[in-house]
Design goal:
The protein has 346 residues and is α+β, with helices and mostly antiparallel strands. It folds into two domains: 4-143, no CATH class; 164-337, no CATH class. It has 15 helices and eight strands. The strands form two sheets. The protein has a six-stranded antiparallel beta sheet, covered by helices on one side. It has a two-stranded antiparallel sheet with strand order 7-8. α8 runs parallel beside α10.
């Protein structure tokens, strides 16, 4: 069987991964490293979802390059590693290569082989790299760049739309509906389901909103929880359910310093919601207390962090009670018989 170098000299773009595996058997990887030990670099295509044509080419060799220590005795269209520019002149003229870049200590030339492969030569005193690419590779790369840029811009626009609700501060209902209009589902629910949920929430009872807080998936955004916690008829139990869902034990370390939270975490929105609920509880904003809530387990979790009085006062409401009596609304009792929307965001 021919040696690695001889097989590399015969290799061309559009070969498959299987072709390369035959040249470079896996059981001998240490000696050839898929060609890297010999100066070969291989570049494959893209998956279909990453290509504007929708064509999967990730198992196709689109481009290859050789450089030292690839031996000079093997050449590609008359070009070999280590040759000087004058020696390459005749082969370059035959292909019609042109200089495309130059600078201190380097020159780059490009051309097209008779079979249509794109060839690129890099000279640094001598020829240091020979690159062969599939026919039309430059155009394909440009199409991909344009495709990726457009996709990136569309994704950024979608992110801005999805986060627009965060900048609505004067109208809670508008904030909630803006969230619903642009929330991106990642399961089988349609986007319109979020709008239905938001409308249901606006007409729901305090008990039903407590059940909604129990099933809310925080990954979809905090808008529903913010909206619930800002209602004057929000039950204290509901406010505390959301409050402890923010993991106050994590924020003990910051002693209430919002700038430190902002600079050291990505959870400033959660911190702000938690602290707003704390302030409302202390100010007596929440007057309804008809739902059962036991803060003992949450308090025990916080105490495991051995907080100081300063830590505790910076996070926990100063009028927090361990237990609030009332109707039990839990997953275990199926939300106390309440009717909750068929659209579950849990």
């Amino acid at each position: 069987m021919p040696g690695y170098e001889e097989q590399i000299a015969l290799l061309r773009p559009l070969a498959t991964r299987a072709d390369l595996d035959r040249i470079f058997p896996r059981e001998k990887f240490k000696e050839h490293q898929s060609g890297r030990a010999l100066g070969l670099a291989t570049y494959y295509g893209e998956q279909a979802n990453n290509d504007p044509r929708g064509v999967a080419t990730n198992n196709v060799l689109e481009s290859m390059a050789v450089e030292a220590p690839f031996p000079a005795m093997f050449d590609f269209y008359g070009f070999s590693i280590g040759m000087d520019l004058p020696s390459a002149g005749a082969a370059m003229a035959k292909i019609g290569m042109r200089e495309t870049a130059s600078g201190p200590g380097f020159q780059r030339f490009e051309g097209i082989t008779p079979e249509g492969y794109e060839v690129e030569l890099l000279f640094r005193e001598t020829l240091t790299q020979i690159r062969l690419s599939q026919p039309g590779h430059s155009a394909i790369k440009e199409q991909r760049r344009t495709f990726w840029l457009a996709r990136s811009e569309a994704e950024e626009a979608a992110r801005k739309r999805a986060n627009a609700w965060k900048h609505i501060t004067g109208d809670d209902d508008q904030m909630l509906m803006e969230w619903a209009a642009h929330c991106k589902p990642w399961n089988d629910s349609s986007e319109s389901a979020f709008a239905r949920f938001a409308r249901w929430l606006q007409s729901a009872s305090s008990d039903e909103r407590h059940a909604a807080a129990l099933i809310c998936n925080w990954d979809y955004g905090l808008a529903p929880l913010l909206w619930i916690s800002r209602r004057p008829d929000c039950d204290i139990a509901t406010a505390l359910l959301i409050f402890f869902g923010c993991s106050p034990e994590y924020y003990l370390q910051f002693c209430g310093n919002r700038e430190r939270v902002k600079s050291q975490t990505s959870s400033l929105e959660t911190f702000d919601m938690m602290m707003a609920i704390k302030s409302r509880l202390e100010a007596g904003f929440y007057t309804r207390s008809e739902i059962f809530f036991d803060a003992a387990d949450a308090d025990q979790i916080i105490r495991r962090h051995n907080p100081t009085d300063e830590h505790l006062s910076s996070v926990l409401p100063n009028n927090l009670k361990t237990r609030y009596e009332g109707r039990k609304i839990t997953r275990e009792n199926k939300f106390g018989g309440l009717q909750i929307p068929p659209f579950g965001i849990a």
